[in-house]
Write a structure and sequence with these properties.
By secondary structure, this protein is an alpha+beta fold. Helix content is 37%, strand content 16%. It has one domain. α3 crosses α4.
């Protein structure tokens, strides 16, 4: 796992041609942002870009105008990634990190859990897509389990966890 302060040092050491000036939601002084990868959603002409804020090492999505990025605590701009299988998203992140000449460990800083949690926190098309990720093998965490307690994958994860803690449990058919 890459520490945030180490990531910031790496980002600051990149050639200036790798960095772009953007504003956060159009409200701030320009910040440096390193684009890492793009994707297009199914059936859409809009290109979605994702990268890292140099000063904080946080991931941020770029607005379609190419001038602004979203606040790093907002994952709405990442939800479109749920339209892809999660392994494809991981492959996009890996390829983008490699193409941006960043260390492979940067992949682990991508906020996949935050994106899934954001989607599950608002019943919508996005929450259904996040549930599909879980069913297809995306591993839940405690917060995801709270947000999707009835999801088959979450129930299986909880059962495996309890077995790991307490051993084989007797049947509840008493």
């Amino acid at each position: 796992m890459l520490h945030t302060s180490s990531l910031v040092v790496i980002l600051k050491s990149l050639d200036s041609s790798s960095r772009r000036l953007r504003t956060i939601d159009g409200l701030s002084e320009p910040v440096e942002w390193v684009p890492v990868f793009d994707c297009r959603s199914f059936g859409a002409l809009v290109r979605h870009s994702y990268g890292l804020l140099v000063e904080t090492g946080r991931w941020a999505s770029e607005y379609a105008d190419g001038l602004r990025v979203m606040n790093a605590d907002q994952y709405i701009g990442f939800l479109v990634l749920l339209e892809l299988p999660f392994r494809d998203v991981v492959d996009l992140v890996r390829a983008g990190v490699r193409n941006a000449h960043l260390p492979e460990a940067v992949v682990t800083t991508f906020p996949l859990d935050n994106v899934v949690e954001c989607a599950l926190g608002q019943p919508s098309r996005w929450s259904a897509l996040a549930e599909d990720w879980l069913i297809s093998g995306y591993p839940p965490n405690g917060r995801i389990a709270e947000l999707a307690p009835h999801n088959r994958a979450v129930r299986d994860w909880k059962a495996r966890r309890l077995t790991a803690i307490f051993g084989e449990q007797p049947s509840s058919n008493a």
